[in-house]
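== Protein entry: sequence and backbone fold ==
=== Local backbone shapes as whole numbers ===
==== Amino acids and backbone structure tokens ====
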Amino acid sequence: MSKINSLRDDITRYGKSLFDRGLTMGSSGNISVRLDDGGWLMTPTNACLGWLDPARISQLDRHGQLVAGDPPTKESFLHQAMYGERPQSGAIVHLHSTHSVAVSCLPDVDPNNCIPSLTAYYVMRVGKLPLVPYHIPGDASLGDAVKGLAGQHSAVLLANHGPVVAGKSLEAAVYATEELEETAKLFLLLRDQNPRCLTDDQVRELEARFPRS
């Protein structure tokens, strides 16, 4: 099996896992993987992550032109904006996962860091999570807004929309997305409880020991 076909199967498998566990629904969410030639594989537009056909996953060249498969997600520009600022990242996951979206709708979150450092694994896999101001879905200017943050952050939260998470590999991006969603759930549960967060020194130690992509 070729490497590209293997990656197509990986995208299909992880997409189904995310869908089966309720982390995405309907035709929402999209996944991409960077290829060795500078192009990408991306989930197609209007596709359900739970029912992907590997052969129909979009393949784009380094200029973003479709070379195989179905037309890509209409949010392909989000992925390209992140990759452009993060040459070390090999995959990106964008979901409309319930608890992360709920946090993105709150009026009083810190736009520079939407979720505090509640756990070590959140710091290790996500770190600081900035809020990107609301844009209508499919608005290409959202790519510019993401690009302005992607160089410093492996994950961003789109206001009233959902998270975009980069990782060294598809597995890493999926794990970070799952960690973000679970920490968003914790944050909502603890919002009125004045939770004990990790200290700045503890966060710095984790970041030094476990650098993210």
Remarks:
- The longest strand covers residues 162-167.
